[in-house]
Design a protein that fits this description.
Length: 327
């Protein structure tokens, strides 16, 4: 990788974007371009156009997105589809206008049909109905893939897409209602430990199965995918099926995950399941054989990753307490 290339990471303050920045820094990249939301509103086309005209990046990692768990997706469906469509449309189009030849779009495994055969191959896209609880978000991400493919077909750009499984790790959002399952569990078990609560309530039946990838592994996969020669990438994909799954290739039930999180946090109470809450998709396991062929595999075991994630949660909690004390 050319260390002098100017690389723009959209969403650098998010969990994935910050991990990509760390990965690029480990690769020795000297010019990483970032903007906070206050500095650049990616839903504003004029602002995005002016940014690209000024900065002229060589490559773009599009990690900016509005994300959340089942509760957030159900509560804010209009915001999820609008914000994500606007961000990706503006970034991809203005990157093309500015002459950016290579871009990486980050999607999500929720693009696949709710009842897709397991493990889900890249070819499962658009072969069935989506999971209703996150359909607006999934539609936006599918549009992002097709946006990149369309620019490649019409303009000869080199815009690539990766579809990560469920991510967790440093920089995650631990909000009590709007977070994903791993950070939500970490917070819930931590609070239960402090309160000596006899049990923790888990949404759903606990039988739904999920795959989890440590975010720094995801970032390494992104940088690896972007570093592939174009002829290698195109030889393993198709013009209208160009996305690549990123995951571990292993899953476990939500109930099993809860036990691992309890272990990482040090909570020794029991579990109860609120079956009035939705399970979401019954199973979401990615087929990652294509990425393996391209030379990358995940390296962080789930138990180790959860320990790192809990340390990150504690650090965030300490920072928040310091901020309150300073105020």
């Amino acid at each position: 990788m050319n260390a002098d290339r100017r690389i723009y990471v959209a969403g650098h303050r998010g969990m994935v974007g910050s991990a990509i920045v760390r990965s690029l820094q480990r690769q020795g990249i000297r010019s990483i371009i970032t903007r906070t939301h206050a500095e650049l509103d990616l839903t504003d086309q004029a602002d995005v156009r002016a940014f690209f005209a000024k900065e002229q990046p060589d490559e773009v990692y599009l990690a900016a997105a509005r994300v959340g768990g089942i509760h957030a997706n159900n509560t804010y469906p209009a915001e999820f589809i609008y914000s994500n469509l606007m961000v990706q449309n503006n970034v991809v189009h203005e990157a093309w206008r500015a002459g950016v030849r290579r871009l990486l779009f980050l999607g999500s495994s929720c693009i696949y049909p709710r009842l897709a055969p397991q493990p889900m191959t890249e070819g499962a896209l658009l072969l069935g109905k989506l999971e209703p609880t996150n359909e607006p978000y999934a539609i936006a991400k599918i549009a992002g893939i097709k946006l990149c493919e369309s620019y490649n077909r019409q303009y000869g750009t080199d815009y690539r897409s990766v579809m990560p499984t469920n991510l967790y790790g440093p920089g995650d959002n631990y909000h009590p209602e709007n977070s994903h399952v791993v950070p939500a569990m970490i917070r819930r078990f931590h609070e239960a430990k402090l309160a000596n609560a006899p049990f923790v309530t888990i949404w759903g039946t606990g039988r739904a199965k999920r795959e989890f990838l440590y975010v720094d592994d995801m970032a390494e996969a992104c940088v690896h995918t972007m570093s592939l020669p174009r002829e290698v990438y195109t030889a393993h994909t198709q013009p209208m099926e160009s996305h690549i799954n990123v995951g571990t290739g292993e899953d476990l039930s939500i109930g099993e995950l809860a036990l691992l999180v309890a272990e990482a946090v040090g909570y020794s109470g029991g579990l109860r399941y609120d079956t009035s809450k939705p399970d979401g998709t019954p199973r979401k396991l990615l087929d990652v054989s294509l990425l393996h062929k391209l030379g990358w595999k995940a390296t962080t075991p789930l138990r180790e990753g959860l320990a790192h994630a809990y340390s990150d949660f504690l650090a965030q909690q300490a920072h928040e307490l310091e901020a309150v004390a300073a105020a």
